[in-house]
Amino acid sequence: MNSESSRPQKMTSKFKSLPSVEKVLSDDRVEMLVQKYSRKVVVDLVRSEIDAARQTILDGYAAPDFDRLVQAIEESAETNWREWPTHVINATGVILHTNLGRAPLSQEATDAARRAALGYSDLELDLNTGRRGSRQAHISNLMAEVTGAEAALVVNNNASALMLGLAALAVGKEVIVSRGEAVEIGGGFRVPDVLRQSGATLVEVGTTNRTYARDFEAAITENTGAILAVHASNFRVMGFTHAPELAELVELGAQRGVTVLHDLGSGCLLDTAAYGIAHEPMPQESVQAGVGLGFFSGDKLLGGPQAGIIAGKRELIDIVARHPLARAVRIDKMSMAALAATVLHYIKGEAVDKVPIWRMISMSESEAAAKAERWQARIGGAASVEKAMSTIGGGSLPGETIDSWALAIDCRNRTGGAEALAKALREGDTPVIGRIEDERVLLDPRTVLPEEEDALLAVVSNALVGS
Ligand SMILES: *Cc1c(COP(=O)(O)O)cnc(C)c1O
Q: Cα of 118 to ligand 1 centre, how many Å?
């Protein structure tokens, strides 16, 4: 084959086996694609598949026959132009799964986002006066209500919130950070880099495990722009450690005229300790301690859409809001609507029942067991019910687990083992994502929404029969 393909005459004759673009386009299946998408994109796709087939020949392999070529075109169309993202069922037991989009929204938050998306809204119009309003006014009031802060500003995500806050308050100045808190948050987002990017200079104080208020005090100069406290969300230092209380830093800041900023990470408005896991810092506590500004995410333990919230003193919020970067990291109307609806759940005291991630966190062990039992009864002997550990995920509360029960499918005697079954589940009508432990696939009911259960069980049954 190889020796043949190097001869020009043979090559030409081999290319002749390839159909013309027109011939492929006249096939019924390809005509259907033209109907479904558009002539232009399908023609481009046909051309590129024929080119690929030509390359296959040049590489010395047999060209696909006409049917194979059309199938490849259909597959490419269905993959490239499918509705995206695809809904998947999270049975991993990881509540804030970053790969799966972090927090699922409540019904009300979803409806609000949909309303904002479908029509026009008073996003920046004061219906009273008919004049231009601010998209921040309403959410600022809601955030102030739940955190106790004087005012708030909402931007695209917490990373941009922090960047904006530092740029607005500390450009050209020094920002003092504990060595133990100059952390990487994930995805290459590192506190020292963010500081540099915002035009501030990092001054690290203390040691990795122990830092005292006096370390901060000794580092204050006339060029100090702020003290920054960062919650090391995604790791834990244990043993011989010390970090100053926020209130100590606030007191120091007040004495020396230095603003204290606090990056909380997750924006947890309910006390996690009430659910048997470690206490996660709360924005209310940060405000109570008197920090100038607190920064947190909308889609971690707040349980809302992606957003970055800056809450604190009104005069500081005003300065931050006027900075040009504020426009660059502006939040869109759908996220704003979903965030407002999510915060309303907290205001009404119904967050544990309505915000999906709080329903998951607060699900009792016996409730998880009962669900897993119910699943087992429908799946049968291939599965058993076993003790499992759910986690918060999303870089929050590392090492903290919630006791749970899961449906376990032992794969030691299955072809391809647990990996093969996990793949079959991912390829289900609604993809199901489980977790693998000791050649078993575990499906944790804690992170599965009630309305997803039937679809999950159908996918699992199918996968078990099909292999
Ligand atoms: C997650 C996190 C961020 C980044 O928040 P995003 O909303 O993901 O941009 C920043 N700081 C801390 C401490 C975090 O935990």
A: 30
